[in-house]
Amino acid sequence: MKTNTWLALGDSYTIGEGVPLHESYPYQALQLLRNQGLLFHAPEIIAQTGWTSNELIAHLHQVRLRPEYDYVSILIGVNNQYRGMEVKDFETTLEWLAEKALHLTNNHAEKVVVISIPDWGVTPFAQDRDTSVIHDAIDQFNAINQKISKEKGFHYIDITTEYRSTGMLQESVVDDKLHPSGKVYKEWAEKVAGVFYIV
Question: Any residues with CB less than 8 A from the CB of 80 and at least 6 apart, and which?
């Protein structure tokens, strides 16, 4: 029986800033998939706290990847928004990442997952900021995520809607009052594993 490979692309939300590695969403999803009897190598994570989509691409140009992966996930863009970068520039970079993901999955679009950007404006970290501005900007970036996912035939997972109702809770954030807790990542992991399980 084949052991599946998974490339997880992203930023702090993919590495699980502030939580142990096993509580990050890729590793919690891995455990769920293995519990269902599926064979998976540990996810190959290409992500770093603070990365924009541009920086993720720059790093991808420098690393040696497998020729092909069974699954690819993308969760990127919050740092583009945080730094005030243009939405249209994000669209250009996400288009590049989408084409890269298609190439790496041998054009199996159904095996690519794009996860929406969580709205950090609801967290305690953002209590002194204009949260409506953050809310609107996140929506614009996620509209691009959804648009490109639809065009390419990717699975788009909306975690933002639910996060907006729970992201402010003490149990939903780590010590920095910004990044999600393992409890939140578990919810994301369930959604991702659900997609991988059916395809």
Answer: 52, 53, 54, 89, 90, 93, 141
